[in-house]
Amino acid sequence: MTTSLSNVETSLVVPETASPLAESIPPLRGVFRITHTIASRFAFLVICIAIVLSALAYGTVHYWALGLFNLGGLTILVLWVLDGWRLGSMRVSRNSLQLPLLGALLLGLIQLLPLRATLSLDPYSTRLVLVQLATLLIYFAATLVFVDTPHRLHILVRTIMIFGFCLAVFGLTQSFTSPTKVYWVRELPQSTAFGPFINRHHFAGYMELTIALPLGLLFGGVVEKDKRLLYVFVAGLMGIALVMTTSRGGIISLVAEIMFLVAVSAIWRKKEEHHSSRKPSKWKPIVIRIGLATALLIGLFFGVIMFGGEFSIYRFIDSVNSTDPTTGRSHFWAVTLDIIKAHPFVGTGLGAYGVIYTKYDSRNGLFRLEQAHNDYLQVLSDGGTIGAILALGFVVLLFYKAIQRVKSTKDDFRRAVALGSLTGCFAVLVHSFFDFTLHTTSNALLFLVLAAMATINGRVEDAPVPRKRRRRSRESSS
Hints:
The protein is mostly helical and 478 residues long. The protein has a domain at 158-319. Helix content is 66%, strand content 3%. It has helices spanning 20-24, 38-56, 63-87, 98-111, 123-146, 150-177, 200-219, 228-244, 248-275, 284-318, 329-342, 353-360, 375-408, 412-431, 441-455, 467-477, and strands spanning 2-6, 89-93, 181-182, 186-187. The strands form two sheets. A two-stranded parallel ribbon has the order 1-2. Strands 3-4 form a two-stranded antiparallel ribbon. Strand 3 and strand 4 (186-187) form a beta hairpin.
């Protein structure tokens, strides 16, 4: 069995039995069809199911849920091997976004080396993080390989949008009927749940990811006129559910998400009009998108009032502590900075923050804090400078590759999906300054799936329609 590298130029996997002449002819997108084995179909199905079930299982933060999640990753590996055996070649993506994740795995293994003492101050937690990170890498790499046609990209986008809408409805219903319980059964006295998530901030983070796709399609201009109102309603309900969590980090991220979408979509649309035969309008793309964003924000405000009444506004105001507006975060961050100064290069170990925090806590030291409520500081604490370089490399590669994909594609739907996916990732990166939403497995999985959708190669693009055929279709429709 050989290894076939999936890149921008290749649109299908050529079996070993193909003739040398066929291998020498470059494949044309839209002429050859990618062979889909039964194993490939099931692998894609497992990815879609994992997106749904990981969120419904309390965000997959408990051991039993993590076990099922890891089992799904193992299933994908087996199906991947069967797919390669059937095709005669093992498909692997060349996407460089996988390299920082592999580097994080290597860093964790180095922290567990049996030297005089392991570099990780909590080897058990580091092993758990490595297993979880390896499983997430499998899902990410599999998404890059098995989402290999425009049809599968459409299915994945619809799955995320429909599930996000249903999750928003469920979260709002539960918050009104049983705000202190999850699934109307499980009581959580020490945390504020929302929907299936134990932490309301993590629900807000999940909504930031799901709302990005309908907004991306709307701002990308690929939604048909008779469906635009439906997409606005779907995105609006997700936004209302996010605001109703009263997560300040989530609300800030939502506003930043919409502003990012306005700026980037206006720039891309302006460049597209500049290269077209029509005379470009200097301000029209920006004005239209600013108007749409303003209408969306106003609609969200009145939607929250309509659903939650004045109580929703008072609840948000009450969540702000006048004595400490950061709700303890300023103290957590100060302690984390002391940890970083003491362990600057390799860090204290992936997942070891809960153990090391009590040692540096300048207060009574009796409380165990599992997360720093700032993913950037915690990356420096757990992984040191090396971990920070890997994380920064992932973010830089994500934005660079997504922008390059958008510039090179002529498929409007693909461009809009890349825009929405990158916007969702941007929103979570903003939220990571205030919370630890990416430490929830379901959020990390969806984040990586969106990163894959933003940077995946050209196999997911529809073949460009000739101008004559496009002109005929317009004439027939008119």
